Amino acid sequence: MTAIAPVRLIRDRATWLIYLQLGVFATYLYGLSAALPLLRIDQGISQAVAGLHGTSMALGGIITGLTLPWLTRRIGRRAVTWTGLAGMSVGTLLVAAAPTTLPITLLGYGVASGMSSITLYSGMAALDDHHGPAGPAAISEANAVCVIVGIGVPFVVSATAQSVFGWRAALLVPAVLTVLLALLMGRVWIPEREDAAAGTAPEAGSRFGWRFYLAGAVLFCCVAMEFCFNLWAAKLFSDQTGLPAAVAATAVAAFTAGLAVGRLAGGRLALRIPPTALFIGALLVSAAGWAIFWLSKDPVFSYVGLAVSGLGVALHFPMALSRVLAVSGGRRDQASALASIFAGLAVGSGPFLLGALADGFGTQQAFLMVPVLIGLAVGGLLIGSGRRA
Description:
The protein is mostly helical. It has helices spanning 13-43, 47-50, 52-97, 102-131, 135-161, 173-185, 194-197, 210-241, 245-248, 251-269, 275-295, 299-313, 316-326, 332-361, 363-366, 369-385.
């Protein structure tokens, strides 16, 4: 593995603004995820029907992904990120206001997901543009902020659920934090690039090459893999160890802890190790963690396997998105929009396919889908990199 000359990551006020915007994004993502079981009880619906909220989230991300390039051209990235946070808050407030009405909660989940997606991907594009060679490190750190904030959100949902306010109160957090952040840092933004100011930015209508779509396919594999762990790891943990579902739910915490550590460390590693080598290394680490988890019947080893898996998966999305942006020919806004579509399709199809396989062959056999996705991602990286790999 060949090291590269260290690159400096300068965390100015504009960088911290995007980090904090993505931290607010995490309060929606982890808040609505943690609230879904409570919402299902309130509505008295089956798990399959409750799962439609995840489908709505995926559709929301795809729809807004299609509109992101147009929206960015009309109002600019700065307004897009704030518009996304405002719309995300509206979506969570819809769920909080009418938690027993299924059509409204489905709409709320979809609106929150779609609007938050434009903040996420526009913010990532801005970071990559602003930091140049240090862009992958900045994107990794931004994702670390999301995970760190996300670890605490389920506890907020749990605490409010046991209070006189009820779990709905936790869904007010995204709106409150959005308003506070706008009041404190609303005027901060990344300086406009010289090429954009001069009108020499790449044309929006030009086509992407095959390397771009291959990078998008790698992103698809990585997102599908992460959500398969998020949604199905607890079930396999319970099946393998014999522990009840309530206890097995803690398995996700081990995976999330690995994500947090990996994304914090990944920012530093991305400044020192070539991107392709680091990405493939992260995929191999997740494969090793999967193997430990998949083979283990012991709770301790299962926790270890999930933590190691999370450690590797931590870098998958930041590195995959950075790669999509890197081969976009400077068309980062259009690339971000397509990346959100790839990710939305992955969220909607990956866990669903694993669930269908689990119904037919059992959860353990269905989890063989994970190394298949890893293999496809590694192959895509090697083909896309050519001799540079």
